[in-house]
Design brief:
alpha/beta, seven-stranded mixed sheet, four-stranded mixed sheet, 15 strands, binds pyridoxal-5'-phosphate
Length: about 475
């Protein structure tokens, strides 16, 4: 079968897209004027557009395609499951083989105290589940005032009413009446941007202590939970200083605050362990997962609950009045199981930790020698490079934040590399199946694009 499918000419598809398709998180008028980039096929770590141009996908789609594109096993499992049982609900005291097998598997790979799973179809839905779950947990313990949840500025937890509220993106809060009541935000552990004269270690402690300050301000007896991503993804791949997570964990324990680790990105191998919680040595009460759970081949999310919380919600009088039509969808569950099998059988987590991942980290960090790069950070297979006109003073560009990042991103597309920009920070989270050759391709292209960006940023007066 040919890689290229039959499709309309690009210009015609762009016109139809502009007329009828509303894109998520997109300035629609700008896009419509320019025309969308149309991706028509993909294989391994590469995607191909409607003009036949191939790019290395440094973002694994949207952080999700862990096992890479074109895995026939996943297509086969969909076909098989659709013929056997395409749908059945899990509401009315029923279950089905794929969701039973997946739940057991997730309980196996998750940290020991995590035993039960509640399903949704997206990370946003999973976090909405988590908000209701932690509040109900305390209500069941006769502490119904514990409704407040602390999260972080520049965190990302989705864009539903709940997920968008937990997230600390001001642009999201500005629309639709967010955040919902009793959600609070503290500052992020972003040393490059906000650490000023402190060492990263001092800064990590200081930012963690903001949690303690907020708890004391609101009153510990009113707080349900703290939620955070082990590494902020959409916020720019912000890897916290080594002192941050131990201090957060201490504070949560000391004040008996539930900890939710949003591992929608860091789950399923991205940081070199099954979960980022292992990488950062934390013990969350709930782990949010989605994206890598199915490698994005089909939508599915899972809230992984500790026995303590699950037992509370399952075994107190009455029911947890929550669920989605597609909770535990059989086709999604079958894909997730097969995806986890591929990750394990093909040793993709080892590949991240000691294989091509180790090589990628070594090469990526060397990009910090580039005159335009302030820091090049990477954990497992997620990395960020901060663009700056002056790495000693950690300065910003003369132009509006994001202008130079945008230039770099456009050079990347033009040179066959998908790299995302958040502000003036370039980020990658490539498929976990990367080979050393793929790493060489990624690094070579990134280096070329940094050179081009540097030249243009100087010529156009950004620095
Ligand atoms: C993508 C993401 C979400 C939201 O997932 P959706 O499936 O887009 O709703 C939540 N949390 C984190 C950390 C994410 O990266």
């Amino acid at each position: 079968m040919s890689q290229r499918s039959n499709h309309l000419p690009t210009a015609q598809m762009q016109e139809l897209d502009a007329a009828h398709h509303m894109h998520p998180f997109t300035h629609q008028a700008d896009l419509n004027a320019k025309g969308a980039r149309i991706i028509t096929s993909a294989n391994g770590v590469h995607v191909t557009d409607s003009e036949g141009r191939t790019m290395l996908d440094g973002m694994a789609g949207l952080w999700c395609v862990g096992v890479g594109y074109g895995r026939k096993e996943l297509a086969d499992v969909v076909s098989r499951q659709m013929q056997e049982l395409p749908f059945y609900n899990t509401f009315f005291q029923t279950s089905h083989p794929p969701v039973i097998a997946l739940s057991e598997r997730l309980a196996q790979i998750a940290p020991d105290h995590i035993t039960r799973v509640f399903y949704g179809s997206s990370g946003s839905e999973a976090n909405d589940t988590n908000i209701r779950a932690v509040r109900q947990y305390w209500a069941n313990l006769d502490q119904p005032e514990r409704t407040h949840i602390i999260a972080r500025w520049n965190g990302y937890h989705g864009s539903t009413m709940g997920g968008g509220s937990l997230g600390g993106m001001k642009g999201i809060h500005a629309q639709g009446g967010l955040p919902i009541p009793d959600i609070h935000h503290i500052d992020q552990p972003f040393w490059w941007g906000e650490g000023a004269e402190q060492s990263p270690e001092e800064f990590g402690i200081a930012r963690a202590r903001l949690l303690e300050d907020k708890i004391l301000e609101i009153g510990a007896d009113k707080i349900a939970a703290f939620i955070a991503e082990p590494i902020q993804g959409a916020g720019g791949v912000i890897i916290p200083p080594s002192t941050y997570w131990p201090e957060i964990q201490r504070i949560c324990k000391e004040y008996d605050i539930l900890l939710i680790a949003d591992e929608v990105i860091t789950g399923f191998g991205r940081t070199g362990n099954w979960f980022g919680s292992e990488t950062f040595n934390i013990t969350p009460d709930i782990i949010t997962t989605a994206k890598g759970l199915t490698s994005g081949y089909i939508p599915m999310s899972a809230s992984l609950f500790s026995e303590k919380i699950a037992a509370n919600l399952s075994e107190t009088d009455g029911e947890f009045t929550h669920g989605y039509t597609y909770s535990g969808h059989p086709v999604a569950a079958a894909v997730a199981l097969e995806n986890l099998r591929i990750i394990e059988d093909e040793k993709m987590i080892e590949n991240v930790r000691t294989g091509a991942g180790a090589y990628l980290r070594d090469q990526w960090k060397q990009l910090s020698d580039h005159p335009l790069v302030g820091e090049a950070v990477i954990e497992g297979m997620m990395g960020g490079i901060q663009l700056t006109p002056n790495k000693t003073t950690r300065a910003s560009f003369l132009s509006e934040t994001g202008s130079v990042g945008y230039i770099c991103r456009e050079f990347c597309f033009a040179n066959g590399l998908v790299m995302r920009a958040t502000g003036d920070r370039m980020i990658i989270a490539p498929p976990l199946c990367m080979t050393r050759d793929n790493v060489d391709e990624l690094i070579n292209k990134a280096a070329i694009c940094l050179d081009l960006t540097h030249k243009k940023a100087k010529n156009d007066g950004h620095m």
